[in-house]
What we know:
Radius of gyration of chain B: 18 Å
Strand content of chain A: under 5%
Largest sheet of chain A: none
Shape of chain A: globular
Order of helices and strands of chain A: HHHHHHHHHHHHHHHHHHHH
Oligomer: heterodimer
Number of helices of chain B: 7
Distance between the termini of chain B: 54 Å
Structural class of chain B: mainly alpha
Largest interface: A-B, 50 and 43 residues
Largest sheet of chain B: none
Structural class of chain A: mainly alpha
Order of helices and strands of chain B: HHHHHHH
Amino acid sequence: xxxxxxxxxxxxxxxxxxxxxxxxxxxxxxxxxxxxxxxxxxxxxxxxxxxxxxxxxxxxxxxxxxxxxxxxxxxxxxxxxxxxxxxxxxxxxxxxxxxxxxxxxxxxxxxxxxxxxxxxxxxxxxxxxxxxxxxxxxxxxxxxxxxxxxxxxxxxxxxxxxxxxxxxxxxxxxxxxxxxxxxxxxxxxxxxxxxxxxxxxxxxxxxxxxxxxxxxxxxxxxxxxxxxxxxxxxxxxxxxxxxxxxxxxxxxxxxxxxxxxxxxxxxxxxxxxxxxxxxxxxxxxxxxxxxxxxxxxxxxxxxxxxxxxxxxxxxxxxxxxxxxxxxxxxxxxxxxxxxxxxxxxxxxxxxxxxxxxxxxxxxxxxxxxxxxxxxxxxxxxxxxxxxxxxxxxxxxxxxxxxxxxxxxxxxxxxxxxxxxxxxxxxxxxxxxxxxxxxxxxxxxxxxxxxxxxxxxxxxxxxxxxxxxxxxxxxxxx
Amino acid sequence: xxxxxxxxxxxxxxxxxxxxxxxxxxxxxxxxxxxxxxxxxxxxxxxxxxxxxxxxxxxxxxxxxxxxxxxxxxxxxxxxxxxxxxxxxxxxxxxxxxxxxxxxxxxxxxxxxxxxxxxxxxxxxxxxxxxxxxxxxxxxxxxxxxxxxxxxxxxxxxxxxxxxxxxxxxxxxxxxxxxxxxxxxxxxxxxxxxxxxxxxxxxxxxxxxxxxx
Lengths: 477, 213
């Protein structure tokens, strides 16, 4: 079954490649997404049907990320149909194939049980998403793609180096070297400490680059700023969460080796540093798509901070991963619509988005309130949990800093967002023909409904999955 | 076998210095292709009794790194008609000296590392580290997009050398996956290079600077 889950999107990619017309091809995306999500839910309900082997299988955090990815992809696939209908002048063959390859490779990341295999899949997601960023073929989007490829490839190369160091930490001690997670966790206490320490730093920098943690985030504002909104949503909610999953697994090995103090300190430091960078660049940011990129840097920092703190904050971090991905879906997709309607993406030109696009403008505003942690939305609950987790551990300085940075970011982001959504649109903007349609509107509404639901009530199956994942990460085998 | 392996690694190190010191882009690509071929042979030298899997990896590595990837890069160069790297931010002589200095430091440093028995006599660790350093130098100091791509290849070669210590830990499938990623990566990079050339009329990455705060 697991293999089917990966083969299926690959097959859909082949279908998308052979379909001739631009009009029909995008429909492959929702078809593949619906069946993928159906298959994922079937496997989650009946774990016994999934055939596991040493290479491929689900651990509880992987299951959570897979469900999240599949749901986000479903939302984005319907949006893509609407979006590509507006862009019939460009061939969407590479775009559709890239999206489906992205789905296959991220699925492989979530169920890889071998550090090397996970690396291969992670690098493949970089390659599958690079062509998506330059869909528009403007010089600026090519520049963004070049930076994304170079920075991403160097980062991921360091992660490979770190993986090899981790294997050598076993060889050094005369243990048979292996990069299977199960065996790494089992032999963790035997690993050579100096090699383990260096390996963790390299893996943190490597996968941190893919997550977009500061100061390795430089590709992020460019890529998110120039890519179509739907690609931004999938990068901010998909690729970065896969990299976060990789980081969690590596941290798990580190903690199983009894080095939780070492890895925790580094993770908390990187998390807070990312939030500081995000705050600095978000205040006075005029380009709203770049602003969303810095918001993504901030939230990746929050996730890293959460697992670094340990205890209750790990639960908060995992819940925040879900909340952040869904809220980023709302923000990037509505930002894409606003960008299209105004043909601009800075506060100099974009005003009155709520008048011009009642649905997208309103959802953009609510998305902003949600992502900055206002009740009653999901991120409020998860950020609050991380805060309590920090105080439980008597980390008052960390907790205080976290709260202060959230406040600064709220004010900084609020200025930009309010300028955009309020006021009266210019004459030129009122003349452009774009209106919110079913396909470009409803998926955002669906994503927003999830964000709102998670703020009021966490469904028991999701809570059970979160608890499983926390228990799995806490256990020291 | 250790002396043969060390010999091959010395060749790799010399090719690093050559790649840092020359301004002709064709020569850099050729040097890295040769480096790939030498590296393809090293798993056979590192293994006391090469088995089928090690030989297969060697053959595939030589084909991908020595033939396929250089061919893609040459094709990209033909399209854009350019021969020489412009004077980089760190000069050719300076970067070559930096590379040599780095190699010397890594050789001295490697003695201090906690290595498994039998690994201390080989040049694997210093060669790996200085090749990674060479890759970084090429990627960060060179101006033309194609030389930066070559820098990425050299960086990957450095990691490959470290992998010689761990032939058992990296199963065949993963080795293949890494090579496939590298191949597809270079392919995507060469397409983007083509687009950079068309959009900017040059491969000068200094022109890629409109996106910033």
